[in-house]
Specification:
This protein has helices at about 30-45, 60-70, 85-95, 125-140, 160-170, 175-180, 195-205, 230-240, 265-280, 300-305, 315-325, 350-365, 370-375, 390-405, 445-460; strands at about 5, 10, 20, 50-55, 75-80, 100-105, 110-120, 155, 185, 205-210, 245, 255-260, 290, 310-315, 330-335, 340, 380-385, 410, 415-420, 420-430, 435-440. By secondary structure, the chain is of the alpha/beta class. It folds into 3 domains: about 1-160, Alpha-D-Glucose-1,6-Bisphosphate, Chain A, domain 3 (3-Layer(aba) Sandwich), CATH 3.40.120; about 165-375, Alpha-D-Glucose-1,6-Bisphosphate, Chain A, domain 3 (3-Layer(aba) Sandwich); about 380-460, TATA-Binding Protein (2-Layer Sandwich), CATH 3.30.310.50. The protein has a 6-stranded mixed beta sheet, sandwiched between helices. Strands 17-21-20-19-18 form a 5-stranded antiparallel beta sheet, covered by helices on one side. Strands 10-9-11-12 form a 4-stranded mixed beta sheet, with helices on both faces. Helix 14 (about 390-405) packs across helix 15. The longest helix is centred in the C-terminal third of the chain and has 18 residues, at about 445-460. It is globular, with a radius of gyration of 22 Å. It starts with a strand and ends with a helix. The structure holds magnesium ion (MG).
């Protein structure tokens, strides 16, 4: 998405997680060509890029335009085909590419697509690299390669999915999981998770049933895994007596779990029990977790007594990855939306790796997921979004700060207000023209009271 702030002095292409837009409206083939050219110019001739796509509409058009741009600058493109984002990222790192490009809009609605640039370490490129690419793009500082070098500039690279499946399966205790004879429902949102997660789980001796697993994106399950979009899948988990259900987003870097009773587990709750488990499983890891302000205060409440430090960051999994890298490691990194990073595998969120770890945890603990979640403190949770421009969302945040000025506030991303029996986060989305509101309280009444207060302000800024 392009944001023009003020009088057009600041121009941005990249949001919190790549460039996103509506196909042929705010993300066109022309933009994709220019962005590919800008990335190619940034890297320089002779470099090698791995390019993968998810199954969204517009993927072929955008990837061909990006490839034309990259190769114009003399960059050789290896086409990895359809693959989840974490599979592309793992291949970039393990096969020594100079970078990667993933054509995906992750969890956005189906009319969206996007372009994500991955650095050679497999992590999304840091902001300063994106800024450099943006300046080449906006100033048209493209460097065309000599015609003499433009031969054999693309090649198929068919190992991405295979390598990922083997790698994830090798990270967990296969025998332990196999012994349990688990039955798991996998819902990959009619996208590329269907190429990997069912295979990985079968390799672990799990009986897999898939829902929304064909690659035709319409009619579709909403690509974001939420209690609403996973309602039918949750029902299926309960009815067939599965031990677990998992819902991915479009590019399968997120995993939202459904317990055996058909209840959706919030991402920060599943992350808390995974963090406690990994702390003992991998005692060599630094005793810290890194999470975004969108996670609940419950993270501190549960993990601090175990001697685990909680580091808060801005929202966006690439931010969490870089913080973990800078701090020299962590037990894990996560967000409440089902993003979970297990640094021992790779420093990026990874839906199938998270699922494999959850199965190992269930096998070792010998309890159903609902019982493990029941042991956590109880909160009443509300998540909602209000359509508004970014500018209005920023004004909305300022008014919320003012309304709760006597309270503890974390302002690294929007505003998070923390009271004794509640917390509320209000922030502009990095990928869509909406404001996100998240809140939790010890009682339903308190949660509704806070929501009312915040929504009164939101109504005035609504698009
Ligand atoms: Mg995603």
């Amino acid at each position: 998405m392009i944001y023009y702030v003020g009088c057009g002095m600041v121009r941005r292409l990249f949001g919190t997680d790549g460039v996103r837009g509506i196909v042929n409206k705010t993300l066109t083939a022309e933009m994709a060509l220019r962005l590919g050219y800008a990335i190619g110019t940034y890297l320089g001739p002779g470099k090698r890029i791995l390019l993968c796509t998810d199954a969204r509409y517009g993927g072929e058009m955008i990837s061909r335009a990006v490839i034309a741009g990259l190769t114009s600058a003399g960059v050789k493109v290896y086409e990895g085909g359809l693959a989840p984002t974490p599979a592309c990222q793992l291949a970039v790192r393990d096969f020594g590419f100079d970078g990667g490009v993933m054509i995906t809009a992750s969890h956005n609605p189906p009319e969206y697509n996007g372009i994500k640039f991955i650095a050679s370490d497999g992590i999304e490129a840091p902001r300063e690299v994106e800024e450099e690419i943006e300046s080449i793009y906006f100033e048209s500082r493209f460097r065309p390669s000599s015609w003499m070098h433009l031969s054999h500039m693309t090649e198929r690279f068919p190992l991405v999915v295979e390598h990922y499946v083997k790698s994830v399966a090798s990270r967990v205790d296969k025998d332990r999981i196999k012994m349990k004879g688990f039955k798991v429902v996998v819902d990959p949102a009619n996208n590329v998770g269907s190429l990997t997660t069912p295979r990985i789980l079968r390799e672990l001796g799990v009986k897999v049933l898939t829902v929304n697993a064909d690659l035709h994106p319409l009619p579709y399950r909403e690509p974001e895994p939420t209690p609403k979009s996973l309602k039918e899948t949750a029902e299926i988990v309960k009815v067939i007596g599965a031990n677990l259900g998992v819902g991915h987003d479009g590019d399968a870097d997120r995993a939202v779990f459904i317990d055996e009773k058909g209840s959706i587990v919030l991402g920060d709750r599943s992350a808390i029990i995974l963090a406690k488990y990994i702390k003992d499983r991998d005692p060599d890891l630094p005793k810290r977790v890194v999470t975004a302000v969108s996670s609940g205060i419950i993270v501190e409440e549960v993990l601090k007594p175990f001697g685990i430090e909680v580091v808060w960051t801005r929202v966006g999994s690439p931010v969490i990855s870089r913080v973990i890298q800078k701090m020299g490691g962590a037990i894990c990194g996560f967000e409440e939306n089902g993003s979970f990073i297990y640094p021992k595998h790779q420093l990026v969120r990874d839906g199938a790796m998270t699922t494999a770890l959850m199965l190992e945890l269930l096998a070792v603990e010998g309890k159903p997921l609902s019982a493990l979640i029941d042991e956590l403190p109880k909160y009443y949770t509300i998540k909602t979004k209000v359509p508004m421009t970014r500018e209005n969302a920023e004004k909305f945040v300022e008014e919320v700060k003012e309304l709760y000025k006597g309270y503890r506030q974390i302002t690294i991303d929007g505003v998070k207000v923390i009271g004794d029996d509640f917390w509320v986060l209000v922030r502009p989305s990095g990928t869509e023209p909406i404001a996100r509101i998240m809140l939790e309280a010890k009682s339903e009444e308190k949660a509704k009271e806070i929501l009312n207060e915040v929504m009164k302000i939101a109504e005035r800024y609504k698009s």
